[in-house]
Amino acid sequence: MINWSSSVGEHPLGDPELHHVAGSIFAEECEPYDAERHLALGTKDSPEQLAKCEYEWYTQDDSHTAALYAARAIFPYLLVGNLRSANKAHLIFTSRLNSGNKSVSVQEVSSKSSDMRVYPVLPLLNFLGLLLLAVQRGSSDLYKQLAKHYAPHVKEVGVWDDALNQIGEMYFGIRIPRQGNPLFDMMGSMMGFGGGSPKPKPKKVEVAPPPPADVD
């Protein structure tokens, strides 16, 4: 049905309503890879479904891995040029984190132009929030500062490089070498629907716990 809608409708990647329905079903069935694939191309209501799905997946893992699951709800929207949905997914995920995991401390930081939640022991979650702010402002200088400051943490994750390279080019004009179609290659790798190999079952994302640290 979705393939048919892409060939006859105005949406070359398929009808957003159909993607939303399919993605919501996969989310209810705890199939995050398939949920991501569809909800990233869904409607304005899809970010809530995706963020909830990723948060539920995260609750099966250690508390310090929150950013790895939040990114799976944020990067897909940024990669299809949907900043509003990326911001919504971030807000919903962090709201559920604040209410559902009291062991994770958070500080509210406000300015005239924006409000942000800062997590003293979750630097990568702070990075995601600042990345969205940099995209909103269109500031390549801010993005480069973020990339440099958080480079050790991003390197430890080891799977964000392709997504961040693509985001750097899309929003900040930082060109990357072309090899095939990096957008679809990256999304396929990250979401588990690229290539011909079967999708792995959802499992915990391994990353070492952070040492005690000051607010990043």
Molecular structure report:
The protein has helices at residues 2-8, 16-28, 32-39, 46-58, 66-79, 83-100, 123-137, 140-149, 151-157, 161-172, 182-191; strands spanning 107-110, 115-118. It has 216 residues and is mostly helical. It has a two-stranded antiparallel ribbon with strand order 1-2. It is globular and about 40 Å long. The termini are far apart.
Key terms for this structure?
two-stranded antiparallel sheet, globular, 11 helices, mainly alpha, 216 residues
From N to C, what is the helix and strand string?
Answer: HHHHHHEEHHHHH
Q: Order of strands in the sheet with the most strands?
A: 1-2
The residue fraction in helices comes out at 55-70%
Secondary-structure content class: mainly alpha
Number of helices: 11
Percentage beta strand: under 5%
Tell me the total number of β-strands.
2
Mean pLDDT: 82
Query: What characteristic shape results from the CA principal axes?
Result: globular
Could you name the ranges where pLDDT drops below 50 across 5 or more consecutive residues?
Answer: 1-8, 193-201
Rg value: 17 Å
The major sheet is characterized as:
2 strands, antiparallel
**Cα-to-Cα separation, first versus last residue:** 46 Å
Question: Mind sketching the topology for me?
Answer:
Layout: H1 2-8, H2 16-28, H3 32-39, H4 46-58, H5 66-79, H6 83-100, E1 107-110, E2 115-118, H7 123-137, H8 140-149, H9 151-157, H10 161-172, H11 182-191
Helix pairs in contact: 2-3, 2-4, 3-4, 4-5, 4-6, 5-6, 5-7, 6-7, 7-8
